Structure formats: structure tokens, C-alpha cells
């Protein structure tokens, strides 16, 4: 790639690689795109479905309470393996690929090594690799701390790597390929009537993802908004249909939306200020935690799961209240209402009725 040439950044989520033959299909698509556009390419990939959690189970089987260093060394290996498989498939397509891992990505973090916070983006490693003419493949979620030790941006953070790569390379936008073709008014697997949102303003995308809509990582949306970078969401199977663009419109046109993430949990709190303090303590550990007011009183929301809350609370001296249910969140402009469901089935029923209320024209007749 010549200096100053255009670059495209493509991210393929874990759901893309349900079987190993998908690497071949995706490599062919990437090669075709390179031939058509002549652009440099950075491709971010996530682990094959279940690989990261299988590694976690193995660590837990090997030692009851694994330290952060063990987890940060092992869990990202699943994404590295995926990146290497794609590089092999690209090689077979005649497209030279270079895999950059850990601190070699140029992404720097601070805070906990396991749920690290992105603090710096050095464009040099990506630009150098692009100059060599390679298709650069990054395993999602990998970075390094200021001493060069490998760090992990946490679960499902490949979207964040993709946006960071787009910022580093000056790409016009970042394309995210997933098992849904875009962002919907609710998870379409929870509410069938969910509507595809063709254009989504940053504020709605930020609220949706901050409250747990898994389709995009909240920090990816935040970083994109900060840089005015558009995120294009598309399906990860041919014909790779583009469903949504994030950042193309103003918030005035935002429709309502609902979030139910089955892994999120609410915890009681004695007061709003105490809930805010606890949420801030957890957020300092890189955990997506929020304070909310509900009909049952103030709560702390821990969004998305996969966090060993017991370990974090003990290490930081956080006093988390008792379980208060699963949050179901309605978003209407700047208004956010948090409801609590006792179990998953009640959460699904609540999400459906809330969706029908916030988007009445779409309610089943
Ligand atoms: N508002 C929403 N719009 C679209 N998908 C959503 C939404 N909320 C949750 N999802 C879920 O997000 C999933 C895609 O995210 P994810 O599983 O992380 O995919 P990938 O493996 O491609 O990164 C979809 O399968 C869908 O169930
Ligand atoms: N290693 C990643 C793989 C993944 O699923 O990421 P994504 O949701 O960005 O595809 C994880 O389990 O967190």
C-alpha cells in the first residue's frame, strides 16, 4: 500500500466462524474486496464461538481461583488462533497476511490487565504493515500496557479493536460483520417485532450498548463518536448485506429501543449515591456497571456477565447489595427507564411489552 492510500477496516465477529470452512469463504471475500477497491486492509477477528469460554473452563479446572495474569495470558489465545486461521486462508488465496498480537497492535491500555481500558493508539505498527503491502489481521481485544505486557480489553471487545484500527489508519469508516445485519430496536432474538434501524445516531447507539445490547461494544461506539467515525454494520454471510450505519444522523430522529441482556444483573443499593459510588468502583476495574433508579429503589447494574464479581469486590473492598433481578431497559430519546425481571422468562415478556409500548405502531395486532 502506498502512503496515503485508503484503508478499509473489517471486523468479523466470532459468530462468523461457526465452522472452520468459513475462514476460506471470508478470505475469498477479503481478497475480492482488495482486488475491487485497491485499498489497504485491516481485518479484525474474534475467536470461534465458545473457544474463549472453553479456555476459561480449562483454567478454572487447573486452579480454583485463577489470577489475572493466568487469564490474560490464556483467554486471548482463542482470538489469536482465529487470526492465524484467517491468515492461513488468506495465504491460500494469494493475499499476504500479517498477524499483529498484544502490544504489537500499537494499542496501549491502563487499569486492570484483564478488563483493560484503551488509553493510547499508536498508528505506526498498522501503517508499517500496510506499507509492506500486507493484509493486516488483528485478533480482537488484544493490546499491551505501558511496560509492553500483553493486556485484554475484556469480553466481546473486538469491535473496540476495529474502531481503534480505523482511527489509527484514518479509515473512512469501520465495517462490522455479525450474525445480524445491523442494529435493531431490540435484540431480534428476544423480540421478533424488533425493527432494523438503518441509521442510528451516536447517542442512541451509546445508550443501547452501555445498557447491554450485545451487537456492538459500548467502548467501540464511544470511541467512534469521539472521532466522528461511522460504523457500518453488515451480515457476516453472503451477500454481506449492510443493515445499519452508526453516526450518520442526528439524535432528533431517534426511535425508541429496548435492551435485555440475559447476562446482566441488578443489585440492591441503600441509596442513589451509594449505587453511583459502587458503580464507579466497578467501572474503575473496567466493568460495565451503572447506577439506576427503579420502582424497587436504587440499584447497581452489572452489564453483560463474565465477571468474577466476588473476586473484584473482595480485592477492591466493594460492598455489593443482594440480587435484584435482570434489568430490562426502555430508551426513548434521553429518557431511560430500568425495569427489573425476576427471571429470564419474565425479562423476555417485559421486553416484549415494553417494546410494544415504546414502538406502538409495531405492536402485533
Ligand atoms: N439491538 C440489537 N440489535 C441487533 N442485535 C442485537 C441487539 N441486542 C442484542 N443483539 C444480539 O447481538 C448479537 C450479535 O452480537 P455478538 O453475539 O457479539 O456477535 P459477533 O459474534 O458477531 O460479535 C445478535 O446475535 C443479537 O442476538
Ligand atoms: N474472545 C472473544 C470472542 C468474541 O466473541 O468476541 P466478539 O463478540 O467481538 O465477536 C470473547 O469471547 O470475548
Automatic annotation (TrEMBL):
<keyword id="KW-0067">ATP-binding</keyword>
<dbReference type="InterPro" id="IPR036393">
    <property type="entry name" value="AceGlu_kinase-like_sf"/>
</dbReference>
<comment type="similarity">
    <text>Belongs to the aspartokinase family.</text>
</comment>
<dbReference type="GO" id="GO:0009090">
    <property type="term" value="P:homoserine biosynthetic process"/>
</dbReference>
<feature type="domain" description="Aspartate/glutamate/uridylate kinase">
    <location>
        <begin position="9"/>
        <end position="233"/>
    </location>
</feature>
<dbReference type="GO" id="GO:0004072">
    <property type="term" value="F:aspartate kinase activity"/>
</dbReference>
<dbReference type="InterPro" id="IPR001048">
    <property type="entry name" value="Asp/Glu/Uridylate_kinase"/>
</dbReference>
<keyword id="KW-0418">Kinase</keyword>
<keyword id="KW-0808">Transferase</keyword>
<dbReference type="GO" id="GO:0009089">
    <property type="term" value="P:lysine biosynthetic process via diaminopimelate"/>
</dbReference>
<protein>
    <recommendedName>
        <fullName>aspartate kinase</fullName>
        <ecNumber>2.7.2.4</ecNumber>
    </recommendedName>
</protein>
<dbReference type="GO" id="GO:0005829">
    <property type="term" value="C:cytosol"/>
</dbReference>
<dbReference type="Pfam" id="PF00696">
    <property type="entry name" value="AA_kinase"/>
</dbReference>
<keyword id="KW-0547">Nucleotide-binding</keyword>
Amino acid at each position: 500500500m502506498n502512503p496515503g492510500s485508503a484503508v478499509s477496516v473489517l471486523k468479523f465477529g466470532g459468530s462468523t466462524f461457526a465452522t472452520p470452512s468459513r475462514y476460506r469463504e471470508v478470505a475469498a471475500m477479503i481478497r475480492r474486496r482488495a482486488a475491487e477497491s485497491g485499498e489497504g486492509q485491516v481485518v479484525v477477528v474474534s475467536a470461534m464461538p465458545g473457544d474463549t469460554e472453553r479456555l476459561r473452563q480449562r483454567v478454572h479446572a487447573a486452579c480454583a481461583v485463577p489470577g489475572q495474569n493466568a487469564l490474560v495470558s490464556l483467554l486471548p489465545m482463542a482470538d489469536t488462533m482465529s487470526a492465524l486461521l484467517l491468515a492461513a486462508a488468506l495465504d491460500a488465496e494469494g493475499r499476504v497476511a500479517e498477524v499483529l498480537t498484544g502490544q504489537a497492535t500499537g494499542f496501549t491500555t491502563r487499569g486492570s490487565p484483564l478488563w483493560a481500558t484503551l488509553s493510547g493508539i499508536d498508528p505506526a505498527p498498522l501503517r508499517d504493515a500496510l506499507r509492506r503491502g500486507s493484509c493486516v489481521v488483528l485478533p480482537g481485544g488484544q493490546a499491551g500496557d505501558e511496560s509492553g505486557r500483553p493486556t485484554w480489553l475484556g469480553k466481546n471487545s473486538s469491535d473496540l479493536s476495529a474502531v481503534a484500527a480505523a482511527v489509527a489508519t484514518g479509515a473512512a469508516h469501520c465495517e462490522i460483520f455479525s450474525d445480524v445485519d445491523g442494529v435493531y430496536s431490540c435484540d431480534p432474538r428476544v423480540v421478533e417485532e424488533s425493527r432494523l434501524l438503518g441509521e442510528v445516531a451516536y447517542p442512541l447507539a451509546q445508550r443501547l450498548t452501555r445498557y447491554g445490547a450485545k451487537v456492538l461494544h459500548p467502548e467501540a461506539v464511544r470511541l467512534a463518536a469521539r472521532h466522528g467515525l461511522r460504523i457500518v454494520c453488515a451480515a457476516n454471510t453472503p451477500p454481506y448485506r449492510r443493515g445499519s450505519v452508526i453516526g450518520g444522523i442526528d439524535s432528533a430522529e431517534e426511535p425508541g429501543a429496548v435492551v435485555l441482556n440475559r447476562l446482566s444483573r441488578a443489585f440492591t443499593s441503600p441509596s442513589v449515591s451509594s449505587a453511583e459510588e459502587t458503580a464507579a468502583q466497578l467501572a474503575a476495574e473496567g466493568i460495565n456497571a451503572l447506577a439506576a433508579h427503579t420502582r424497587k429503589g436504587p440499584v447497581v447494574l452489572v452489564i453483560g456477565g463474565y465477571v468474577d464479581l466476588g473476586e473484584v469486590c473482595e480485592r477492591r473492598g466493594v460492598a455489593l447489595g443482594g440480587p435484584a433481578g435482570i434489568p430490562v431497559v426502555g430508551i426513548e430519546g434521553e429518557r431511560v427507564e430500568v425495569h427489573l425481571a425476576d427471571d429470564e422468562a419474565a425479562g423476555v415478556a417485559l421486553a416484549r411489552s415494553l417494546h410494544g409500548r415504546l414502538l406502538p405502531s409495531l405492536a402485533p395486532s
